[in-house]
Amino acid sequence: xxxxxxxxxxxxxxxxxxxxxxxxxxxxxxxxxxxxxxxxxxxxxxxxxxxxxxxxxxxxxxxxxxxxxxxxxxxxxxxxxxxxxxxxx
Amino acid sequence: xxxxxxxxxxxxxxxxxxxxxxxxxxxxxxxxxxxxxxxxxxxxxxxxxxxxxxxxxxxxxxxxxxxxxxxxxxxxxxxxxxxxxxxxxxxxxxxxxxxxxxxxxxxxxxxxxxxxxxxxxxxxxxxxxxxxxxxxxxxxxxxxxxxxxxxxxxxxxxxxxxxxxxxxxxxxxxxxxxxxxxxxxxxxxxxxxxxxxxxxxxxxxxxxxxxxxxxxxxxxxxxxxxxxxxxxxxxxxxxxxxxxxxxxxxxxxxxxxxxxxxxxxxxxxxxxxxxxxxxxxxxxxxxxxxxxxxxxxxxxxxxxxxxx
Lengths: 89, 308
Prior knowledge:
The structure holds two protein chains of two kinds.
Chain A: E1 2-3, E2 7-12, E3 15-20, E4 31-33, H1 36-45, H2 52-63, H3 67-83, E5 87-88
Antiparallel strand pairs in A: 1-5, 2-3, 3-4
Helix pairs in contact in A: 1-2, 2-3
Chain B: E1 10-17, E2 20-27, H1 32-40, E3 55-58, E4 69-72, E5 83-89, E6 92-98, E7 105-112, E8 117-122, H2 126-145, E9 150-152, E10 156-160, E11 163-168, H3 175-185, E12 190-193, E13 198-201, E14 207-210, E15 225-236, E16 241-244, H4 247-256, H5 265-281, E17 284-289, H6 293-305
Parallel strand pairs in B: 2-3, 3-8, 11-15, 15-17
Antiparallel strand pairs in B: 1-2, 4-5, 5-6, 6-7, 7-8, 9-13, 10-11, 10-12, 13-14, 14-15, 16-17
C-alpha cells in the first residue's frame, strides 16, 4: 500500500489533519483528522510502500503493545485509510 | 529602428489591492484598457515605486516549454467557464486559457518562478480577450500573494457596524442572496464585494477584508477595507440557525473557499499559514438558513453578540 500522492498531514490548530492538496485532489472536498497514533503511523510511512505488517510493527515499537492487538489495529486503520481514499492498495 | 518598436505605445498603470501593488502594461490603444476602468479604476494608485507583487505585460508572450503539463480542467470544466491547462518549466508557471465558446486557446500566461514578472498574449474577440485578461490578472494576484499572508476568497462580503462579514458557500448556495438579506433587514449594511474579497493578516495578527476588482456578476468594485468580524458558511435549510464551528471545521470551511495551486508545496504552505492565522482570530460559523430576512437577523445577532 501507499499514500496517494498529494495528501499532506498538517497540524491544524493542534489537530493532526490530512488535507488533499495535490493535482488529483482538486475536488477532494474534505479534511480527515487523525488521532495521535494514526498521525504517528502516517509520518512513518509517508512516501513509502507499506502493508499492515509494517503498521503493526510500528505500533509495537512505539507503544509496546502485543503483536496480536497491533495487527488488529493496523488492519483496522489501513482499511479506514483505503476507504477514505487516502491510500491505494 | 527603435522608435518603430511595436511596444512603443505601451502604457502602464499601477494598482493596489489589499495593500499589494501590481502593474499592468499593454498597448495604449488596446480596447481592454477601457473595460478595466470600472473594475480596476478604483484600485489605481499613483505609486511610482516598483510593484511589490508583479508586473504583467500584455502583448506577444514568449513561447514556453509545454513538455511538463501539471494540471488541466478541460475534461471537467463547466459549460460557460474558461478552461485551464497548467504547465511547469524551469522558467516558472505557464497557463493556457481555453474559451468556452470556441473551445480554442485564446490566452497564454507565463509567470516567473518568484511571481514577480508575467507576460500574457491574447486572441479572439474583444470580449473573450477581456475575460481572459481579467482571469489572468486574478491568477497573478492569487499566485503572488499566496506566501504573503493573503488569501483570495470565494465569498460575498458585507460591512456592518465597522466589521466585514464573509459569506462562503458553493456557487448557487445563496451567498449573494444572504448579503442582500442583510442589506434589507439591517441598518447600514454595505456590500464590499460579491465574489472575490481578499483577506490579509497584518503584522499584528489581525485579519482584514478588502474589496477587489473581481466581483463576479455583481458590479461591486469597492476599494475599501475592514477588520473581519466573522466568516460564515451558508448552508440551505428549512430553518434559520447559526452554529459556531470548531477550529478544524473553521479551517475546512475557509480552505474550501480559498483558491490556490496547492499542488505546489510552497503555495500550499503559504495558504495553510494564512488560513490558520485567520481562524485563530476570527470566529467562523455555519449558518443553516432560508433565503429570507429573518436569516439575516438571526445570523447578525449570533455573529455580533459573540464579540460584544
